[in-house]
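Chapter review: from sequence to fold.
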Amino acid sequence: MKRFIIAAFAASTALLATPAQAVQLIPGSSIDLAGFVRALGSATLGGATGLDFLAGPASEASPGVAGNINTYGNGTGSLAGINCSGGNCGSIIDVTNLTVGAQNIANFFTLSGGNNTAPVFFDLTSISDINRSNPNFLTFTAQGNIRYSTFDPTAATFLFSAQGTTTTSFSATAIANPVPEPAVWAMMLFGFGGLGYSMRRRPKQTVRVRYAA
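The token string follows.
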């Protein structure tokens, strides 16, 4: 019985555990980006080994300045209400090795300007999926962390899509997808493991039924 009480307490403590710092972004918080992009390392977007993010009209003759994005907005959750339309709304670092696997690009994009008083940062850590179904089509899914205002860095997914010639428009969305911290997982596993062990070790009880003569 003593083991059962200790294990139950550990399990309940794990469920109530919260990070010591500020809260993470609301799960599902998102922000949309749009602008222009040029394929690197290939004459077609689908064969690109990298991407150059551009400002201004998508023109082969005048592709604009690398790094700038055109707009962002339509934020939801913790990112609701911030937006920028036209001009210098932030920057995206070129993707120089567009393959599945770890990329580790700090400040992959920085969103500023518009009515946003606190910049939004996204640190890309890996690319998990790339779709090049035809020469002029490219999508990829990346993982990383969003950093914004007083919130803790929050795990997020970055979805990118572009369709067109070598220089074309793109759209992308960053979606917060927080996961429990390792310490919280460890406490939960320990608590529920102890609970299961104590239940298994509990003495068996025999019930006898007597019928009246």
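Two observations follow directly from the output. Confidence is low (pLDDT under 50) at residues 2-20, 180-192. The beta strands are 30-40, 50-54, 71-73, 84-85, 90-92, 101-111, 120-131, 137-148, 154-163, 167-176.
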